[in-house]
């Protein structure tokens, strides 16, 4: 390993500044005289987008495996398989001379309209964090780096480069940051990419609070922070905030600005040195991995197929699936011939090969007669003749398979979706075909939740196949014919309609600002709280078999938060075929000082079971599973009290529950102040003993003045009135009777409390 301190000591100011800005669209600046190599980064996240010419931002990239996108990966709930994918990604990076892959993306799916949701895992921070950590571990285990992105609160594409996300502290800590936090703490991504947008008024690239205080100091990121491409506005301010590398390059004026800032004293050279130290650490680490060995494209294609198969969610099935002994099949829909397997934008991969759904289907069809009808056009025009032809084909067959892909123009990086709907023609097609052919299966390709209420009743079965990667066509066939028993579960809620969604009123914002007014309540946290029906809940997914849950046990009925709790449950395959069940563990806090969601995912595991087989699933809940972030204390806290531990097959299908009592070990700092209310004084553990005797005297004096419980006296209703008044105001009302000014009395009480 190079002696970084000595290299920094030898670097000129110009060399340091140059290292902190890219030299090309994808490369960092080499410093030959000191033996500092350049480093190459490439998108990401679900495949390597290596452009041969590093000066080109966009160019057809070199062939690489296009794995399923994040929504599909998250639906596998299978961290081990995601880690395997990470290893495969690293092998491709090595082959393509890439040091760092730009991913994964862990932004929350705040609204299903976000055009980039296909690149993000979930509406739940726990699930997203676990998935990201596994992917990062996989990639980095092979000596290739990752870039965890886009930090933070980049939850819409609308005005993504400027929008100011207004998010309160608790919501940031509990919803928008934890996936990053988990990934950083568990997997140490080599780099973290800041977001374009502003968060509470400050650009992602200039956020001292997020980049330095939280990411580096609190979570301990060892690597460096890179800007999203073009996210830096003021280079010097960004450096000061903790943004180490600006991309893309070259940007000679930026380099010059840094040099001048140091020369003029506007920027402390120590700040620049720290960025250089972080960048060099990764540059040299990356150089340790020899590049160039070819990857096994066939093996990676097979892995992509497994992933796509595990990610497919069986949304509905009346028993038609898996298909058996079908002699005549009508295949309908463009997506059967032109696989829709990835999204538009920076993640667009040039695949090594693509499985066409129709061809893959034919391989399993055992000589059945298969017809193909296009069904719908590539654009949003209405073409009744295509529907007529499809209906005729469906009528002549025993089964109709409708391959419906949300058109690429409806969903992409760079802009948001306008609605949650399929095209008018697609909906009309589904209805018309199902009307003549009861044995119809709809197979969907899309990156995020769709509204389905107008057509979901019509087909016999529906598969959510997502943006399924280059091998998805084969994976669909695997599931249709039962070679693979579907086991994916939704990592995002499918609402009934757009106006039901949590951010509906506060999206997309106006005047350059979007207020996260729904706070903690995104995804199932919102639907649970509102008791609002949805099309398919978070965590939902069907199977060709059935599972029973029994024998739930917890390690203790009463436990200390720091010791945590172990939860076990037995899961039995009660159906006819082997299958995989994803077991979900949710926690509900019965009573807290602040509002909490009705339930939150805090653990999950999957079990493979043969028919009749039972296995025990054991999960551990740590301190954070019970804690919430209290903005007044500025820390994660637990409180004494009861929690429900809920084990289920989805967020809406809880199979077993236990109630346990938590003993908190958190010592809360006292936060009483001049304006604290009577209730706050009485509820504060340190305020209470000081205040209670004073309060008793005060009440006695008041009762003397105004009378007791009777009409107009100090009864319950007056107490209700008083409790939420600041002590100072209550005292001011009786200032004539007081021996000293209210402020002095309060200062005396506070002195006793803080003594
Ligand atoms: C995207 C990033 C991507 C970068 C480089 C940006 O526009 O937001 O996700 O990694 O471009 O292509």
In the sheet with the most strands, the strands line up as: 9-14-13-12-10-11
User: Which descriptor suits the 3D outline?
Assistant: globular
Structural class: alpha/beta
The fold-level CATH name of the domain at 302-530 is Rossmann fold
The CATH architecture of the domain at 302-530 can be named as: 3-Layer(aba) Sandwich
Q: What's the helical proportion of residues?
A: 25-40%
CATH class of the domain at 302-530: Alpha Beta
Average pLDDT across residues? 96
Task: Please give the radius of gyration in angstroms.
Answer: 29 Å
Overview of this structure, please?
This protein is 32% helix and 18% strand. By secondary structure, the chain is α/β, with parallel strands linked by helices. Among the domains are: 302-530, 3-Layer(aba) Sandwich (Rossmann fold), CATH 3.40.50; 547-663, Immunoglobulin-like; 678-754, no CATH class. The strands form six sheets. The chain has a six-stranded mixed β-sheet, with helices on one face. A five-stranded parallel β-sheet has the order 1-2-3-5-8. Strands 17-25-24-19-20 form a five-stranded mixed β-sheet, with no helix packed on it. Helix 2 (13-19) packs across helix 10 (252-264). The mean pLDDT is 96.
């Amino acid at each position: 390993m190079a002696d970084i301190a000595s290299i920094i000591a030898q670097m000129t100011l110009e060399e340091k500044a140059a290292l902190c800005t890219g030299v090309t669209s994808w490369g960092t600046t080499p410093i030959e005289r000191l033996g500092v190599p350049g480093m190459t980064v490439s998108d990401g996240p679900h495949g390597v987008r290596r452009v041969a010419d590093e000066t080109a931002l966009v160019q057809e990239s070199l062939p690489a495996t296009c794995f399923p996108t994040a929504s599909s990966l998250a639906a596998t709930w299978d961290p081990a398989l995601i880690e395997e994918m990470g290893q495969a990604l690293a092998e491709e990076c090595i082959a393509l001379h890439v040091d760092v892959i730009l991913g994964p993306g862990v932004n929350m799916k705040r609204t299903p309209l976000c055009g980039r949701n296909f690149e993000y895992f979930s509406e739940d921070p726990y699930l997203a964090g676990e998935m990201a950590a596994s992917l990062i571990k996989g990639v980095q285990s092979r000596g290739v780096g990752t870039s965890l992105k886009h930090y933070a609160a980049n939850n819409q594409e609308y005005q993504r480069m400027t929008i100011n996300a207004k998010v309160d502290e608790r919501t940031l800590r509990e919803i928008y940051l934890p996936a990053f936090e988990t990934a950083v703490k568990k997997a140490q991504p080599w780099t973290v990419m800041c977001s374009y947008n502003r968060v509470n008024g400050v650009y992602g690239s200039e956020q001292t609070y997020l980049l330095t205080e939280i990411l580096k100091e609190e979570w301990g990121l060892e690597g460096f922070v890179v800007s999203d491409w073009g996210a830096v506005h003021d280079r010097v301010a960004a450096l000061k905030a903790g943004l180490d590398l600006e991309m893309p390059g070259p940007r000679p004026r930026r380099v010059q600005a840094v040099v001048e800032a140091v020369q003029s004293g506007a920027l402390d050279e120590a700040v620049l040195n720290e960025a250089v130290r972080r960048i060099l650490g990764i540059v040299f680490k990356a150089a340790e991995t020899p590049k160039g060995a070819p990857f096994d494209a066939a093996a990676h294609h097979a892995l992509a197929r497994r992933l796509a198969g595990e990610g497919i969610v069986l949304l509905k099935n009346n028993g038609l699936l898996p298909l058996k002994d079908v002699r005549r099949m009508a295949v309908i829909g463009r997506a059967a011939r032109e696989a829709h397997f990835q999204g538009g934008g920076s993640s667009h991969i040039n695949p090594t090969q693509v499985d066409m759904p129709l061809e893959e289907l034919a391989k399993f069809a055992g000589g059945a007669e298969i017809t193909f009808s296009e069904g719908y056009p590539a654009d949003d025009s209405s073409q009744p003749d295509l529907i007529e032809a499809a209906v005729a084909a469906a009528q002549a067959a025993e089964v109709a398979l409708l391959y419906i892909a949300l058109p690429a123009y409806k969903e992409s990086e760079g802009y948001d979706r306008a609605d949650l709907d399929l095209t008018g023609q697609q909906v009309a097609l589904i209805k018309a075909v199902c009307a003549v052919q009861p044995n119809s299966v709809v197979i969907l390709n899309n990156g995020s939740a769709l509204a389905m209420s107008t057509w979901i009743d019509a087909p016999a079965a529906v598969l959510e196949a997502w943006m399924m990667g280059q091998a998805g066509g084969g994976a669909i066939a695997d599931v249709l014919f039962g070679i693979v028993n579907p086991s994916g579960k939704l990592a995002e809620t499918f609402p009934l309609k757009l106006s039901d969604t949590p951010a509906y009123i506060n999206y997309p914002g106006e005047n350059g600002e979007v207020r996260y007014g729904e706070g903690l309540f995104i995804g199932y946290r919102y639907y649970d709280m509102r008791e609002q029906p949805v099309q398919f809940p978070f965590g939902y997914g069907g199977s060709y078999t059935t599972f029973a849950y029994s024998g739930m046990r917890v390690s203790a009925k009463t436990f200390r938060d720091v010791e945590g709790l172990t939860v076990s449950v037995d899961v039995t395959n009660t159906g006819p075929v082997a299958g995989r069940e994803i077991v979900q563990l949710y926690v509900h806090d019965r009573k807290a000082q602040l509002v909490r969601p009705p339930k939150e995912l805090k653990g999950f595991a999957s079990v493979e079971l043969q028919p009749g087989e039972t296995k025990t699933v054991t999960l551990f809940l740590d301190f954070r599973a019970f804690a919430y972030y209290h903005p007044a204390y500025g820390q994660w806290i637990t409180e004494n009290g009861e929690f429900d531990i809920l084990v289920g097959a989805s967020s809406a299908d809880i199979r077993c529950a236990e109630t346990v009592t938590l003993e908190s070990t958190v010592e809360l700092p006292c936060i009483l102040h001049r304006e604290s209310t009577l209730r706050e004084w009485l509820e504060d553990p340190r305020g209470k003993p000081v205040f209670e005797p004073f309060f008793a005297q005060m009440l006695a004096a008041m009762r003397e003045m105004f009378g007791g419980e009777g009409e107009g006296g100090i009864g319950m209703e007056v107490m209700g009135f008083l409790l939420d008044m600041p002590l100072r105001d209550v005292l001011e009302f009786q200032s004539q009777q007081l021996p000293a000014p209210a402020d002095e009395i309060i200062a005396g009480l506070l002195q006793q409390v803080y003594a």
